[in-house]
Amino acid sequence: MTLALFDLDNTLLNGDSDHGWGMYLAKVGAVDPIQQQIKQDYFYQQYLEGSLDILEFCEYQFEILAKTPLPQLRQWHDGFMEEIVEPMIVNGKADLLCKHQDAGDDVLIITATNDFVTSPIAERLGVDTILATTAEFLDGKYTGKVSGTPCFQEGKITRLMAWLDKHNKTFQDSVFYSDSANDLPLLERVDTPIAVTPDEKLRAHAEKHHWEIID
After folding, report:
1. Is 139 a catalytic residue?
2. For helices 33-49 and 54-67, what crossing angle results, to 10°?
3. pTM for the predicted model, two decimal places
4. How far apart are CA 108 and CA 138, in angstroms?
5. Fold (CATH) for 3-214
6. How far apart are the C-alpha atoms of 5 and 175, rounded to whole Å?
7. What is the CA radius of gyration of the chain?
8. Which residues pair with 138 in a beta bridge?
9. Rounded mean pLDDT of 49-69?
Protein backbone atom coordinates (compact mmCIF):
# COMPACT_ATOMS: atom_id res chain seq x y z
CA MET A 1 0.00 0.00 0.00
CA THR A 2 1.36 3.39 -1.03
CA LEU A 3 1.36 6.43 1.24
CA ALA A 4 0.07 9.03 -1.23
CA LEU A 5 0.52 12.61 -0.03
CA PHE A 6 -0.91 15.63 -1.80
CA ASP A 7 -0.38 19.33 -1.34
CA LEU A 8 -3.64 21.18 -1.97
CA ASP A 9 -3.20 24.70 -3.31
CA ASN A 10 -1.89 24.94 -6.88
CA THR A 11 -1.46 21.15 -6.85
CA LEU A 12 -4.86 19.50 -6.64
CA LEU A 13 -6.52 22.90 -6.99
CA ASN A 14 -5.95 25.31 -9.83
CA GLY A 15 -5.44 28.21 -7.47
CA ASP A 16 -4.76 29.04 -3.84
CA SER A 17 -7.66 28.46 -1.45
CA ASP A 18 -6.08 30.57 1.30
CA HIS A 19 -5.76 33.57 -1.00
CA GLY A 20 -9.19 32.87 -2.46
CA TRP A 21 -10.79 32.83 0.99
CA GLY A 22 -9.26 36.19 1.84
CA MET A 23 -10.47 37.78 -1.36
CA TYR A 24 -13.93 36.23 -0.94
CA LEU A 25 -14.18 37.86 2.49
CA ALA A 26 -13.40 41.16 0.83
CA LYS A 27 -16.07 40.53 -1.80
CA VAL A 28 -18.81 39.93 0.77
CA GLY A 29 -17.77 42.96 2.79
CA ALA A 30 -16.38 41.10 5.78
CA VAL A 31 -13.02 42.87 5.50
CA ASP A 32 -11.73 46.04 3.86
CA PRO A 33 -10.99 45.07 0.23
CA ILE A 34 -8.01 47.39 -0.27
CA GLN A 35 -6.27 46.37 2.94
CA GLN A 36 -7.06 42.73 2.26
CA GLN A 37 -5.48 42.89 -1.18
CA ILE A 38 -2.38 44.56 0.23
CA LYS A 39 -2.03 41.97 2.99
CA GLN A 40 -2.74 39.00 0.73
CA ASP A 41 -0.15 40.14 -1.79
CA TYR A 42 2.36 40.83 0.98
CA PHE A 43 2.06 37.35 2.47
CA TYR A 44 1.85 35.58 -0.88
CA GLN A 45 5.09 37.19 -2.05
CA GLN A 46 6.76 35.99 1.14
CA TYR A 47 5.38 32.51 0.47
CA LEU A 48 6.82 32.47 -3.03
CA GLU A 49 10.17 33.62 -1.70
CA GLY A 50 10.17 30.95 1.01
CA SER A 51 10.34 33.58 3.77
CA LEU A 52 6.76 33.49 5.07
CA ASP A 53 6.36 33.93 8.83
CA ILE A 54 3.63 31.35 9.20
CA LEU A 55 2.60 32.49 12.69
CA GLU A 56 2.25 36.12 11.60
CA PHE A 57 0.23 34.99 8.62
CA CYS A 58 -2.05 32.78 10.70
CA GLU A 59 -2.67 35.52 13.24
CA TYR A 60 -3.87 37.72 10.41
CA GLN A 61 -5.98 34.99 8.78
CA PHE A 62 -7.52 33.83 12.06
CA GLU A 63 -8.60 37.28 13.21
CA ILE A 64 -11.85 37.04 11.25
CA LEU A 65 -12.51 33.55 12.65
CA ALA A 66 -12.18 34.76 16.22
CA LYS A 67 -14.54 37.71 15.90
CA THR A 68 -17.28 36.18 13.73
CA PRO A 69 -20.11 33.90 14.93
CA LEU A 70 -19.89 30.34 13.63
CA PRO A 71 -23.18 30.44 11.67
CA GLN A 72 -21.91 33.43 9.69
CA LEU A 73 -18.55 31.78 9.05
CA ARG A 74 -20.28 28.66 7.75
CA GLN A 75 -22.51 30.71 5.49
CA TRP A 76 -19.54 32.52 4.04
CA HIS A 77 -17.67 29.25 3.58
CA ASP A 78 -20.60 27.70 1.70
CA GLY A 79 -20.54 30.62 -0.74
CA PHE A 80 -16.76 30.41 -0.98
CA MET A 81 -16.92 26.72 -1.88
CA GLU A 82 -19.45 27.33 -4.63
CA GLU A 83 -17.98 30.47 -6.17
CA ILE A 84 -14.23 30.09 -5.61
CA VAL A 85 -13.28 26.51 -4.80
CA GLU A 86 -15.44 24.59 -7.26
CA PRO A 87 -13.81 26.21 -10.32
CA MET A 88 -10.40 25.50 -8.75
CA ILE A 89 -11.37 21.83 -8.52
CA VAL A 90 -12.86 21.60 -12.00
CA ASN A 91 -9.78 23.21 -13.56
CA GLY A 92 -7.28 21.52 -11.25
CA LYS A 93 -5.62 18.13 -10.98
CA ALA A 94 -8.00 16.24 -8.70
CA ASP A 95 -7.65 13.34 -11.13
CA LEU A 96 -4.25 12.66 -9.55
CA LEU A 97 -6.14 11.29 -6.56
CA CYS A 98 -8.06 8.68 -8.52
CA LYS A 99 -5.40 6.05 -9.15
CA HIS A 100 -4.39 6.06 -5.49
CA GLN A 101 -7.96 6.00 -4.24
CA ASP A 102 -8.81 3.17 -6.63
CA ALA A 103 -5.74 1.22 -5.45
CA GLY A 104 -6.79 1.56 -1.82
CA ASP A 105 -3.68 3.56 -0.93
CA ASP A 106 -3.40 5.75 2.15
CA VAL A 107 -4.35 9.11 0.66
CA LEU A 108 -3.63 12.28 2.65
CA ILE A 109 -3.87 15.95 1.87
CA ILE A 110 -1.14 17.85 3.70
CA THR A 111 -1.43 21.62 3.48
CA ALA A 112 -0.26 24.80 5.17
CA THR A 113 -3.70 26.34 4.65
CA ASN A 114 -5.78 26.22 7.81
CA ASP A 115 -8.29 23.51 8.59
CA PHE A 116 -11.32 25.82 8.63
CA VAL A 117 -10.74 26.62 4.97
CA THR A 118 -9.50 23.22 3.80
CA SER A 119 -11.40 20.49 5.66
CA PRO A 120 -14.56 20.99 3.55
CA ILE A 121 -12.40 20.99 0.43
CA ALA A 122 -10.88 17.62 1.36
CA GLU A 123 -14.38 16.27 1.97
CA ARG A 124 -15.47 17.55 -1.45
CA LEU A 125 -12.48 15.74 -3.01
CA GLY A 126 -13.36 12.50 -1.23
CA VAL A 127 -10.24 12.51 0.95
CA ASP A 128 -10.87 11.42 4.54
CA THR A 129 -7.53 12.47 6.03
CA ILE A 130 -6.17 16.00 5.93
CA LEU A 131 -3.25 17.45 7.85
CA ALA A 132 -3.55 21.23 7.90
CA THR A 133 -2.50 24.14 10.05
CA THR A 134 -4.99 24.03 12.90
CA ALA A 135 -6.98 27.06 14.01
CA GLU A 136 -7.43 26.75 17.78
CA PHE A 137 -11.07 26.12 18.72
CA LEU A 138 -12.06 26.28 22.38
CA ASP A 139 -15.41 26.52 24.14
CA GLY A 140 -17.31 26.59 20.87
CA LYS A 141 -15.36 29.36 19.18
CA TYR A 142 -12.10 30.14 17.41
CA THR A 143 -9.47 31.87 19.54
CA GLY A 144 -7.46 33.46 16.73
CA LYS A 145 -4.40 31.37 17.59
CA VAL A 146 -2.63 28.39 16.04
CA SER A 147 -3.00 25.02 17.72
CA GLY A 148 0.10 22.83 17.60
CA THR A 149 2.71 22.88 14.88
CA PRO A 150 1.82 24.79 11.70
CA CYS A 151 1.73 22.42 8.74
CA PHE A 152 4.33 24.38 6.78
CA GLN A 153 7.81 23.55 5.47
CA GLU A 154 9.52 21.28 8.07
CA GLY A 155 6.29 21.41 10.06
CA LYS A 156 4.71 19.14 7.47
CA ILE A 157 7.20 16.43 8.42
CA THR A 158 6.50 16.95 12.14
CA ARG A 159 2.76 16.67 11.60
CA LEU A 160 3.07 13.69 9.28
CA MET A 161 5.41 11.81 11.62
CA ALA A 162 2.88 12.21 14.42
CA TRP A 163 0.15 10.82 12.15
CA LEU A 164 2.32 7.90 11.03
CA ASP A 165 3.21 7.01 14.64
CA LYS A 166 -0.44 7.19 15.68
CA HIS A 167 -1.51 4.86 12.89
CA ASN A 168 1.54 2.56 13.06
CA LYS A 169 2.64 3.42 9.52
CA THR A 170 5.94 4.42 7.89
CA PHE A 171 7.33 6.38 4.94
CA GLN A 172 7.76 3.11 3.00
CA ASP A 173 6.42 3.38 -0.57
CA SER A 174 5.58 7.06 -0.10
CA VAL A 175 4.84 9.60 -2.84
CA PHE A 176 4.27 13.33 -2.48
CA TYR A 177 2.77 15.67 -5.09
CA SER A 178 3.47 19.39 -4.66
CA ASP A 179 3.88 22.64 -6.58
CA SER A 180 6.00 24.57 -4.07
CA ALA A 181 9.63 24.80 -3.07
CA ASN A 182 8.31 25.33 0.47
CA ASP A 183 7.60 21.60 0.42
CA LEU A 184 11.17 20.56 -0.38
CA PRO A 185 11.77 19.19 3.15
CA LEU A 186 8.99 16.64 2.70
CA LEU A 187 9.60 16.09 -1.01
CA GLU A 188 13.16 15.07 -0.19
CA ARG A 189 11.95 12.72 2.55
CA VAL A 190 9.52 10.58 0.51
CA ASP A 191 10.44 7.76 -1.86
CA THR A 192 8.85 9.40 -4.90
CA PRO A 193 8.67 13.20 -5.11
CA ILE A 194 6.51 14.57 -7.92
CA ALA A 195 6.41 18.24 -8.89
CA VAL A 196 3.02 19.46 -10.14
CA THR A 197 3.03 22.74 -12.08
CA PRO A 198 6.03 23.66 -9.91
CA ASP A 199 7.23 27.13 -9.05
CA GLU A 200 10.53 28.23 -10.52
CA LYS A 201 12.70 27.06 -7.64
CA LEU A 202 11.03 23.65 -7.37
CA ARG A 203 11.15 23.13 -11.13
CA ALA A 204 14.89 23.74 -11.17
CA HIS A 205 15.40 21.36 -8.24
CA ALA A 206 13.18 18.69 -9.80
CA GLU A 207 14.98 18.89 -13.13
CA LYS A 208 18.38 18.68 -11.44
CA HIS A 209 17.39 15.58 -9.49
CA HIS A 210 15.37 13.99 -12.31
CA TRP A 211 12.06 14.06 -10.46
CA GLU A 212 8.83 13.59 -12.37
CA ILE A 213 7.18 16.87 -13.36
CA ILE A 214 3.49 17.14 -14.20
CA ASP A 215 2.34 20.29 -16.00
Report:
1. no
2. 150
3. 0.95
4. 26
5. Rossmann fold (3.40.50)
6. 6
7. 17
8. 141
9. 94
Strand 192-196 and strand 106-114: the pairing is: unpaired
Is-catalytic flag, 9? yes
CA 161, 53, 10, 203 torsion-angle sign? negative
Instruction: Look at residue 40 in the predicted model and tell me its pLDDT.
Output: 87
Domain ranges within the chain, ordered by starting residue: 3-214
The answer to whether 28 and 76 are in contact (CB under 8 A) is yes
The Cα 38–Cα 56 span in angstroms is 15
Distance CA 200, CA 38 (A): 23
Backbone angles phi, psi at 157, to 5 degrees: -65, -45
Helices within the chain (DSSP H only):
17-27, 33-49, 54-67, 70-80, 86-90, 95-102, 115-124, 154-166, 184-187, 200-208
Model pLDDT, residue 95: 95
Catalytic residue among 7, 115, 179, 183: 7
Dist CA 121 CA 136 (whole Å): 19
Q: Answer yes or no: is pLDDT of 1 > 90.
A: no
Residue type at position 13: L
Give the model confidence (pLDDT) of 96-121 as tens digits: 999 999 999 999 999 999 999 999 99
The pLDDT tens digits of the residues spanning 8-39 come to 999 999 999 999 999 999 999 999 999 999 99
Q: Residue 113, SS3?
A: strand
The whole-angstrom separation of Cα 44 and Cα 29 is 21
